[in-house]
Amino acid sequence: MDLETYYYREELQEHSEVTARVAQELLTPFAALVDVCTTSLRGGGKLLFFGNGGSAADAQHLATELTVRYKSDRKAIAALALTTDTSALTAIGNDFGFEQLFARQIAALGRPGDVAIAITTSGKSAKVLLALRQARDMGLAAAALAGKGGGELRALADPLLVVPSYTTARIQEMHITLGQMLCGAIEVELGLAWSPTPTSRPASRAPRDAPGRATAGPRR
Questions:
Q1: CA-CA distances (angstroms) from residue 123 to 4, 50, 143, 154, 173?
Q2: CA–CA separation, 33 vs 36, rounded Å?
Q3: Are 174 and 18 contacting, i.e. CB atoms less than 8 angstroms apart?
């Protein structure tokens, strides 16, 4: 195999093409998700992230960006991942079945006005679908990041961001990109971070590694 021609460059080319389509197609649902999240947070609500496998890791990543910091030190933002409590996960799986993994936690922790955010490449996971149904029944907003056409999520999730790809790796890459964009937008909309607009950008900025300059982004 010609590594450069048939893998390295083709992977990056496909990534670029999917990124371009995301930029063109997902602004409206992304803005809707930012609005739903900030409305919830302003009202004392919280964000509940969940997903399987790599999407579980994304859920943990994004919840941490919000509870700790994203671009700069600021007030904590209420968010948690339903993928981290091994005692709860194993007890629910053992006592109620694997499909109840997230729905049971939403039943315990969710409140009307919260936002449940599913992360799934296929939109077909039974426990993800069940969790969103549980969220809707309880008066939570049920949102999702998906791909591969959206699957059954189209009837359940709103807002729904469907990455226009059927390649799992490309979908996952866009999910974490959109997720981090969501964190940044939430900070800005809540007035907790500088807004990256031409009028708000400082006239001159110190180099990134200049002495005495606070480093942007998480220190980890």
A1: 33, 13, 12, 9, 16
A2: 5
A3: yes
Tokens of 76: 């904590």
Better-predicted residue by pLDDT, 69 or 197: 69
Q: Reduced to 3 states, what is the DSSP secondary structure of residue 61?
A: helix
What's the confidence (pLDDT) of residue 23? 98
Sheet strands (E) in 91-163:
115-119, 141-146, 160-162
If one compares 86 and 2, the residue with the highest pLDDT of the two is 86
Lowest mean pLDDT among 12-16, 118-122, 212-216: 212-216
Residues 56 and 40: their CA atoms lie apart, in Å, by 22
Please say whether the beta carbons of 40 and 143 come within 8 A: no
Q: Which residues of 78-96 are buried (b: 16+ CB within 10 A; e: fewer)?
A: ebbbbbeeeeebeebeeee
Q: Rounded to 10 degrees, what is the CA torsion of 211, 198, 20, 29?
A: 110
57 vs 61: CA distance, rounded Å? 6
For the residues 4-24, what does the mean pLDDT come to?
A: 92
Q: What is the amino acid identity at position 214?
A: A
Say which residues have a Cβ less than 8 Å from residue 55's Cβ, sequence separation at least 6: 119, 120, 121, 172, 175
Name the one residue in this structure whose structure tokens are 């969710």. Answer: 110
CB 131 within 8 A of CB 103: yes
Domains and CATH numbers, the chain: 22-189 (3.40.50.10490)
Residue 77 near residue 190, CB atoms below 8 Å: yes
